[in-house]
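TEACHING EXERCISE
Course module: macromolecular assemblies
Task: Read the component lines below, then compare them to the predicted structure of the full complex.
Student: A.B.
Group: 4
Components provided:
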Amino acid sequence: MSIDLYLNQAFAQHALLAAGLVSIACGLISPFVVARGMAFAVHGTSELAFTGAAAGLLVAHNPVAGAFAGALVVATVLGTLGNKEHERDSTIGVILAFGLGLGVLFLSYYHGFATQATNILFGNIFGVSNDQLLVLVTVCVGVLLAMLYIYRPLLFASVDPEVAEAKGVPVRALGLVFLFILALTVTSAAQIVGTLLVLSLAITPAAAAQRLTTGPFAITMLSVLFALSASVGGILASLASGTVKPSIFVTSISFAIYIFARTFTRFA
Amino acid sequence: MNSQNPVIQLENASLERGGRHLWRGLDLSVKPGEFIAILGPNGAGKTSLLKVLLGLLPLSSGIASVSGQPPRRGNQRIGYIPQLKRFDDSLPVRGIDLVELGLNGYRFGIHNHRKATAQVAKAVTAVGAKSYATQPIGRLSGGEQQRLRIAQALVGQPDILLCDEPLLSLDLASQNSITARLDRYRQRNEAAILFVTHEVNPILPYVDRILYVANGRWVIDSPDRVLQSDTLTGLYGTPVEVLRVHGRVLIVGTEDEALTTAGAHHAHEKDIGDEH
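Instructor-supplied answer key:
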């Protein structure tokens, strides 16, 4: 079956729109995730979005709303408990372990389709309803606007916290705000690649971009481009194949970009 | 000395941290264009004094004022050079980005930064960092990073410069060129400099007064009067001897005396990364 046929259909167009927005958000936060050493926080919040999604599925048959609610709870808890940098990772580990346990408990009480559960873990952008898509679009636009607004002070606070604080940047408050932005972005990305594979959109693009270019603007633009190529490319490839899930292509393209960047590294 | 209003004033100021008095009853009045060195052993509260002036720490008692007003965070009239901490390799910024953040990094929203670019280029050239300022900051040596920190502090044309051990990890030639650069800025802009250091020799030619803090006590006077055996013996409460050898000042008998000798200085350098 030809890919053109799919592209005329609403479900494919919606998937591409959502993937595009999510990737721009991921590409924007990705350099900050790398600079602030928050890879584990991405992993933690995405795994816990699974718990939220499982709860949402069980209670209201709405995994997307559940995932977003769960992400906000997790960001609040991490923001309250994990103040000290060296404590942050262990705090995330503790909450992650307990949270996943809860997720398994919720799923064991859920007697609907089993595919719903695997969709949370591995993503199924084609299965998202119009309402859920609207939520996704709203969240992504919100993240974009917030990132544009705090971009410069957040960069200052991330690379040079002492001077930033002296210059009047609210370093701690920005750290908390970024945690929420990260949680929302990660949860959005989880709708496309699933909670287990979010890192391929939230870390890999900046990790690759930093090897090829330098300067915050160039790195951010390039990581947005990489995230977009991976997600949109992944969806198109999935449509062309007809049977293989987008996540597999998204993570593969993302990884291929990273290998390319490592091979042709200019800055490391 | 001129009769201008002081840019920094402390009256009967005391600072306590963790139940310990760092210093008590400190009186300090700094005029525009003055170069003040702040000396003393580790933990004497030198860095904390800068933090008070930056509005990051409140005094336990007494009054502090900066440009005639209580200290406040985000005073853009202050340039700050914090204690050297190496920048990490994973940071997405170049030297010029770091300098530009010193100019407008506190501003939210989107701004046209064309004007900033010219100012940044000027500040980078002035510290002699032009040839490597477009490299990622994490790839530069300790000395190169430090020059960019100084450009970052000067780019906003501050009236007050607070420097915390800015020469640590630098080789002798860089120490001299950087202090000369700071002093030129001070003279041109009538800027006051507070300079926390372990190593007084590189800055001695420029210093107007020394604030020496030890054991909760303090003394402030001209370098000649402060750097005397009896003055420092009185301050430490134990015998301290000040020697002048080949135009260099050596302070013997303090707990961190080793830091004023060249050997220990190199040990520091090793911690932070070699100059070239």
